[in-house]
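Quick log. Single chain, no ligands specified.
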Amino acid sequence: ESRMRARAREDDGTVSDFRLSLPRPGPKSAFVFSWWVLGLYALFFAQGLTPSAESEQRYSELMQQAVFSPEAREIEHEMRRAMRDLDQVHVWGWRWREPYSRLVPERKAYLAVAQRN
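-> predicted structure:
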């Protein structure tokens, strides 16, 4: 109880000396503030790029050519075949089981080549 009385005597009702330390104004602060304002502008007010109808049409045509080209289909088929072949031999503990310890690295290399194409 004596501690509480002593503390009450020390506390004279004034607000503590707590201050929020803001950064000092200077070149770094101005630089960061300007980028922050620019970011807010880009986020809320700037309009995005709207492509023209011609460029959208050209993009669509190029995508159709890429999707339905025979080369793309052949490459995708080759990659799926390589994945299927790897899945047949990629078993749990393949590093310590004899036939799989040879087959898995070979088929992984084959899959890597197929994915690069």
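The two ends are 83 Å apart (CA to CA).
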